[in-house]
Amino acid sequence: MTPKYLLKRLGQAILTFLVTMTVSFLLYQAMPGGPTEAMRSVILSQSGGSVDIDRLNRMIQLYTNVNPDQPMHVQYFNYASDVILRQDLGTSFFKNEKVTTLIMQRIPWSMFISVYALALGYSLSIFLGVMTAYREKSRFDSTVSSLIIGLNSIPYYIVGVVLIYFLAIQNNYFPTGGRIGSGIAAGYNPEFMLSLVKHAALPAISMGALATSGALAMRGNAIRVLGEDYIRVAQLRGLRETRIATQYLGHNSILPMYTQFMIGIAGVFSSAVIVEEVFAYPGMGLLMFEAVKTQDYPLLMGTLLVFTAISLTAIFIADLTYTLIDPRISVGEE
Amino acid sequence: MSETHSDSFDLKDLYDEDIDPDPESRADRAKRFLEMNVVAPARIAVADWRALVGGAILAFFLLMGSVGVWLVERPTSGDAPVLAAPFESLAYPLGTDVFGQPIHAQLIHATPGMFKMIFAGAVVSVGFAALVGVVAGFEHGTRIDSFLMTVTDVVITIPGLPLIIVITAIFQPENPYIVGVFLGIDNWPGLARTVRSQVLSIREESYVEASEIMGIPLSSILRRDILSQLMPYVMINGALTSRRIIFESVGLYFLGILPFTTFNWGVMMNLAYEGNALTRPDMLPWMVAPMVCIFLLSFGLVLLSQGLDSLFNVRLRARHAKTSKKKGTSKNNQSQATGGD
């Protein structure tokens, strides 16, 4: 593990966060009619009363950390220092609470389904990719490959709708939405745990469907690796098939997929916005959806920044593990 | 093209004109052109069912969006009885929704908007990706390259969907072209990276090196050696990008984040889902019909992209062209082509 590589990746992550923050600041400025005009009606409907422009600007600053009165660079500096130094993302228009507090309550729920979706989707696509490659041109290969192509043609939220219809409405295996059954006390008791898992299962599966898109690329990679000499040598040595499939074929064909998997993390996390709405699962995605519906701009920008921060952290962690599976990285070359 | 370097002039001419030892007649040349560019791809397309089926599905939707819009009237509320069951009347073969609008007419009138979105999104993202990728690949190792790649990496890791949601929530785009452009914002970086690595590996090829040594101008090298090699990647990824744009746009309409100004499959799904269509069997067709359309169109695009992959495969193409002089084995080759992917 070379510090130089990690420093570079860390710098990249920080740069990305700064860019997103700048974009969100610019989006405030680019609102049709400027931030004051755009947010006037929303704020007035909330507090009612005077149309005094100074008071309005003060309120906008209170809510969004952007004061339209000041020159642009001062505004930007204040906004950036609030976000970075004070972790202050403003105050929600409608819930009258700090955006960070609102988001913090929702993060664990979103992480719960996202992480399981990632684990499910990626392990499935690696497993299926390697297996179909190993049994290339067999009936198993053609069936599974066609299924994967079919699955990749269905948007993940439609997978969610179909799952709800068949598993929650036609049959009562799973609840149709929400994150916990009503009247179940929180704590380490079996009912609570079971309810938790049951509510999270369908959202996680439908988000996982998005993550299986790597299976075909994995198959292509594995087929290429199959042609390598070391696989033939391993076969000639009489090694067990499972060992060849996992340690020789699997390991080596994952390496080129790794960046693709890491990029996919951001996609799976952000799919939470649609999936959580479909399942009425109160995570961060649903919070963002509510913010759009009520034109709650501070909350909206806040969720965007937090989504970015979480994706960047996840990608960085994945980067750390890359050094574990690819020994070449520790040599220090790119 | 400037001819300032007198020593490179002849070589460039030779390279550009593709002069044969014994010149062919114009008819021969036309025949060969047709053989290489129309007949051989068509033969592969027939042999490879994926390109054929994908193309047919796409053609079906294109017809729906162009001719269908003329044939089928724009639906309005109260056209037909409310919530009629499908497959019972010729006037509304797929049934009607809660406003009495025939479902098939809504599907058809949503198609042009869909294609406008796909077109705008695919052109923007693929074009931008190709530009960034080619420039970065050619300026490899310079500041331009590292700048472009930094930008690409930044955009890749920003979660695209939340960003697009924020942008659409603020600007409320109604024009399908603009929606497509917005959706294209997060779709280009992956392809830009692929194009760049392709350009890098093509640059290492000996024939490009030879062209450089011969003093062929950069524009010719780009055009003749590099772009022609890149087209397959761009086409294949264009189909996949279109699929992503369908997913995202329909998703945003389904959520109700984009304004409901036109007919759209996602709008239909949204209205049906909000009306609890899943628990009411009489409303189910309203929900299922747009879902089937989305599936079919993206399935067609995926198949097409895979079919194009083999269509652009140079070796397969050579096998199917008659110019390869092995006419007797063409049947044999076709079976290989279908079995060999």
What does this structure look like?
The complex is a heterodimer of chains A (334) and B (341). Chain A is an all-alpha fold and 334 residues long. Chain A has a domain at 100-325: Orthogonal Bundle (MetI-like fold). Chain A has 15 helices and no strands. Chain A has helices at residues 3-30, 34-47, 53-64, 72-84, 99-134, 139-152, 156-170, 190-211, 215-226, 229-236, 241-254, 258-270, 272-278, 284-293, 297-325. In chain A, α1 (3-30) runs antiparallel to α15, α5 (99-134) runs antiparallel to α6 (139-152) and α8 crosses α12. The termini of chain A are close together. The model of chain A has no long low-confidence stretch (mean pLDDT 83). With 341 residues, chain B is mainly α. Chain B has a single domain, classed as Orthogonal Bundle (MetI-like fold). Chain B is 73% helix and 0% strand. Chain B has 14 helices and no strands. Chain B is flat and about 75 Å long. Residues 1-8 and 323-341 of chain B have low confidence and may be disordered. At the A-B interface, α1, α6, α7, α12 and α13 of A face α5, α6, α10 and α12 of B.
